[in-house]
């Protein structure tokens, strides 16, 4: 293929296609009913704000045994 043909395609139809994908992603993000999903995802870092999550292997609460990873 000739460089000029590919360049013309990239300047017209490929740019239009990328713009359509961008608009689709924005519309998908702001769709009705997605608020709960976005709020749940945004609160992930704060889920164990009071205490760390226990891995389930300890019976009397999680204790730091001084082991390093």
From TrEMBL:
InterPro entries: Cbb3-typ_cyt_oxidase_comp. It comes from the Bacteria. Keywords: Membrane, Transmembrane, Transmembrane helix. Pfam families: FixQ. The chain crosses the membrane at residues 12-30. This is Cbb3-type cytochrome C oxidase subunit 3.
């Amino acid at each position: 293929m000739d460089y000029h043909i590919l360049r013309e395609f990239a300047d017209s139809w490929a740019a239009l296609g990328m713009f359509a994908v961008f608009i689709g992603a924005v519309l998908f993000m702001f769709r009705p009913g997605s608020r709960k999903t976005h709020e749940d995802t945004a609160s992930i870092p704060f889920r164990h704000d009071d205490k760390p999550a226990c891995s389930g292997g300890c019976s009397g609460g999680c204790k730091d045994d001084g082991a390093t990873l």
